[in-house]
Write a structure and sequence with these properties.
The chain has eight helices and eight strands, in the order αββββαβααβαββααα. The chain is of the alpha+beta class and 232 residues long.
């Protein structure tokens, strides 16, 4: 029970971090994390409230078929992004889906993300773009297509829609979402000036990626954001 409570609390913190960093979109956007000891169940941010509004008792539980099995609030209709990614990827413990504006704008350009800065290096081995539809992902078939497009990657763009990130921890999934939005913003700045003339080599980018995604760095950064919204 203690592990489950801690996981719910961490999901609440994840949602508030995303909102604080500009990834809130009114009542839309959602985060999930597997229930400790129950890989077939997911804790999820519910529908009808903003990322910044969520409290511990608001968190709902869904199964891998997308059915709500616990909680008083409604689930998001895009639950299938989360369930099908996790069904396809047993290594994934958390998924983020948001609509950050720079990532949405960058995805509309149809250009590859470059390792302009450290943030772009996170995705140096590829950033898939899901383009089968720009509409919401409202059924398992569409969710499976998203999961196939994501493959073994840790992040992707949903063209004209938003982003998806996936990771072995909720902290890493959140940090990948923040890295992706900042990477898109940085490249858009370069594009406005004619495009980047210099980017990191693949070798350098991989070194930077592995350093930034080291568990100690990810957890320290996540806790930094918790302190910021807590006013500590």
């Amino acid at each position: 029970m203690a592990d489950a409570k801690a996981a719910r609390d961490r999901l609440v913190q994840a949602c508030r971090i995303l909102a604080m960093e500009g990834q809130g979109d009114h009542i839309w956007g959602h985060v999930t994390a597997r229930v400790p000891g129950r890989p077939d169940l997911l804790f999820m941010k519910p529908a009808t409230i903003g990322l910044e509004e969520i409290a511990h008792d608001d968190v709902i539980t869904v199964n891998l078929d997308g059915d709500k099995v616990d909680g008083r609030m409604p689930r998001h209709i895009e639950v299938f992004i989360h369930t099908e990614v996790m069904r396809a990827r047993p290594d994934v413990m958390a998924v983020v889906h948001t609509h950050p504006p720079h990532a949405v704008a960058f995805g509309a350009l149809g250009r590859a993300l470059q390792p302009v800065g450290h943030d772009g290096a996170i995705f140096c081995d590829g950033l898939p773009v899901f383009s089968e539809t720009s509409d919401l992902i409202t059924n398992a078939t569409q969710g499976k297509s998203v999961a196939r497009s994501l493959g073994r990657h840790g992040g992707m763009l949903l063209r004209n829609h938003g982003i998806v990130t996936a990771a072995a921890t909720i902290e890493e999934a959140v940090m990948k979402a923040l890295f992706l939005e900042k990477a898109c913003k940085t490249q858009l700045l370069c594009e406005s000036c004619g495009g980047a003339q210099h980017v990191s080599t693949l070798e350098d980018a991989r070194v930077k990626r592995d350093r930034l995604l080291h568990e100690s760095q990810v957890n320290a950064a996540f806790d930094y954001f918790v302190r910021r919204f807590s006013g500590v």
